[in-house]
Amino acid sequence: MKTQVAIVGGGPGGSTAAMFLAREGIQSVIIEKETFPRYHIGESMSGECGAILRRLGLGDEMLKRGHPIKRGLTVYGTNGKNAWYIPVKGRDENWKLFDQYTWQVRRSDFDKMMLNEAVARGAVVVPGRAAKPLLNEDGSVRGVQVHMEDGGVQDIESELLLDCSGQATFLANAGVTGPKFRGSYDKQIAIFSHVSGAIRQEAPESGNTLIFYKGKYHWAWFIPIDDEIVSVGVVTSAAYFLGTGEDKKDFLIRELRELNPELSQRLPEINLVEDVHVIPNYSYQVQRFTGRGFVCVGDAHRFVDPIFSFGLFVSMREAELLAPVIKAYLSGTGRDAENPFADYQLHTEKGIDILEDLIDTFWENPVAFSVFTHRRYTEQIYDIFAGRLYEHQPSEAILACRKLLKRERLYGAQDEYSVPIGSRFHAERAPIWNNEATVSNTELWMNS
What we know:
Blueprint: E1 2-8, H1 12-23, E2 28-32, H2 47-55, H3 59-64, E3 69-70, E4 72-76, E5 84-87, E6 89-91, E7 97-99, E8 102-103, H4 107-120, E9 124-135, E10 141-148, E11 153-163, H5 170-173, E12 180-182, E13 188-196, E14 209-215, E15 218-224, E16 229-237, H6 238-244, H7 248-258, H8 261-264, E17 271-272, E18 277-280, E19 284-286, E20 290-291, E21 294-296, E22 302-303, H9 311-330, H10 342-364, H11 366-376, H12 378-386, H13 396-405, H14 414-417, H15 436-447
Helix pairs in contact: 1-4, 1-9, 10-11, 10-13, 11-12
């Protein structure tokens, strides 16, 4: 089987890529091992994630399906104190802020809608598991071998292979990319489920995301996903969870009751309507995630931190940005270059750097983060929370964050920026990363 573009993974990143490629007149084949609908985490959209759906012509469909409307997010400090709110804001053609909204989604329904829409626009879905990339003698990628759902094996030849496999990191695990670095800070896990009967905010904020802080790297989420059901989860260190000796269900129920009073009062009864799931939330970064014949998209090359729900947006936005680059590539641009997608790689890496710098400032310098958000750089912080990571950046807010983090971002050769000075990837190069004074400062503010 031959195609212009083969896409490993039929989730939102893969289906979004297929739809934007179809706009460019480009044929794609999606390899997906699971049968949709299927359960998935990551139900909250940033403002710009909603904008992508509107650009795909799916805004009316989202409203028709009745997905909860998200107008912002609220973070509650320890003991429910010091709450702060970030509204969803858009930018017009003159770069002026305006009130906007996005959506929360039940991923089983949303992902199926997106994949069906990709097929309706011309993509072909191959049911099976991507087994290994097909390589030319010079190491370039020429397709993927698929273990088919019916037990057979099929080689799919492509001019370009997109890895949209998410945290499975298909091409990194196959050794096609550069090395995969893991973060050096506390290893985290997320334990989560769905509940009914939760008490939401009053309309029109009833669809908003709520975050509840317990301690550093210990927090919970509350995301309405339809009229009845709320997604809830707890993120903490694996060591803490293992130290309790509890199974995942008992752990989740107890944490939902004890983690934060603002959370427990919203769950007078904990009625689980979904199995309790566990996934690791290790930060990681893949070097050289583009090359001759391949590109990794979204979580397939980098995962920062789940706290502000950027994963869905990043995969969809990278897919959108990639479509015109692929069109140029298929037309001959850079086909003989060592890395035809080097400029795209750098552009997307810089965008996630913005996100990482904001989140790390939240964890390491919460007092300064509060000042930046509510007094000094409010509009610029709104931009980042919305997902404007690739425009008008780095802003003064991000430069201030980097100064606090003692972080230097170097953008020269591709290997120079993948493990930045002051990042979570090399503790010896991060002078404040596990500094006791910083931790004490965090706890002091969150408990005040």
